[in-house]
Write a structure and sequence with these properties.
Layout lengths: L3 E6 L7 H14 L3 E5 L2 H7 L4 E3 L27 H13 L4 E6 L1 H12 L4 E5 L15 H22 L1 E7 L6 H10 L3 E3 L7 H13 L6 E5 L5 H12 L2 E6 L11 H19 L5 E6 L2 E6 H4 L10 H8 L1
Parallel strand pairs: 1-2, 1-4, 4-5, 5-10, 6-8, 6-9, 7-8
Antiparallel strand pairs: 2-3, 10-11
Helix pairs in contact: 1-9, 2-3, 5-6, 6-11, 7-8
Bound molecules: 6-O-phosphono-beta-D-fructofuranose (F6P).
Length: about 325
């Protein structure tokens, strides 16, 4: 019988993490559970002490609309080391915590899977702007992120249109192209370069030259990070096509800001579901949303797998450009 649960946020923060924390705390408290918030992800779990705070209903008042995470987050590569995890497990035991809920992305799930194998009752929620978690159509933070990216690209379109320039825009997503693809379709970009398409430089150069010849005023090319140096790419495009070209790296702006309505709803539903799973003793799973239904998966079935929510978007983007 579960009496005490704990929650932490780990890895890159994502808008909506606070809404999920709020849901876990409120749903836990109404079911008579003690809910502990652990500061700064797995680092706080490892360090223990004041990093564990009992959370009241009031402690999560007014956080549903706030970006970031009130619990703080961190990346802790050392958590792969069993000795680090053991210290975290001892900290959970000291307080008699029966279940740990973690919110984060790939690295967080890898840590959670290791904790599960160490015998910890753990439940994972997908929180990352990258949308790169298998077993869920969407991750908490993705919707807010693409809204931010679309807003930024709309602004770039204004100025590029005025100056007849080409814009090369680098977006986040780690090795997943979902941010680029969703934003590409929503902004009417000319094309996107993602890990699925790779960079075909000749194609990019010929395409942009063609746009110039056919009097397109402001082509927009969206590139997922880690594929190429967008400043160098912009220079090559300018030299070859004759288009004045500017590169913009949107960077961490994409991770901040008030969570969108969709993210607040997703996070609230997942937080509530995590508590229901804990009360039912269904541990060792990560939750997600598929076709608008909450689903659960084993960490092993999710880690390292690639999903295709935005299948064929590259083609649609080019057809409509
Ligand atoms: O996973 C979220 C993310 O923002 C990625 O898109 C990006 O590659 C990475 O985190 C950046 O990490 P950091 O904030 O540690 O530089």
């Amino acid at each position: 019988m579960v009496k005490k649960i704990a929650i932490l946020t780990s890895g890159g923060d994502a808008p909506g993490m606070n809404a999920a924390i709020r849901a876990v705390v409120r749903a836990g408290r109404i079911n008579g559970l003690e809910v502990y918030g652990i500061r700064d992800g797995y680092r706080g779990l490892y360090e223990g002490g004041d990093n564990f705070q009992l959370m009241s209903r009031k402690s999560v008042t007014d956080i549903i609309a706030r970006g970031g995470t009130i619990l703080g987050s961190a990346r802790l590569p050392e958590f792969k080391d069993p000795a680090y995890r053991q210290k975290g497990i001892e900290n959970l035991k000291k307080l008699g915590i029966d279940c740990l809920i973690v919110i984060g992305g790939d690295g967080t799930y890898t840590g959670a899977n290791a904790l599960k194998k160490d015998g910890v009752n753990v439940i994972g929620l997908p929180g990352t702007i990258d949308n790169d978690i298998y077993g869920t159509d969407y991750t908490i933070g993705f919707d807010t992120c693409i809204n931010t990216v679309v807003d930024a690209i709309d602004r770039l379109r204004d100025t590029c249109g005025s100056h007849e320039r080409c814009a090369v825009v680098e977006v986040m997503g780690r090795y997943c192209g979902d941010v680029a693809k969703a934003a590409g379709l929503a902004t009417g970009a000319e094309f996107v370069i993602t890990s699925d398409t790779g960079l075909d430089l000749d194609y990019v150069l010929e395409k942009t030259k063609d746009y110039k010849l056919h009097s397109k005023r402001h082509p927009i090319i969206i590139v997922t990070e880690h594929i190429t140096n967008v400043h160098e790419l912009a220079k090559k495009i300018e030299d070859y096509s004759g288009f004045e070209t500017r590169a913009t790296v949107l960077g961490h702006i994409q991770r901040g800001g008030k969570p969108s309505t969709q993210d607040r709803i997703l996070a609230s539903r997942l937080g509530l579901a995590a508590v229901e799973y804990a009360l039912a003793g269904k541990f060792g799973v990560c939750l997600g949303i598929v076709s608008n239904e909450i689903v659960s998966s084993n960490f092993e079935d999710v880690l390292g797998k690639k999903k295709h929510v935005f299948r064929n978007f590259e083609k649609s983007i080019e057809i409509l450009s």
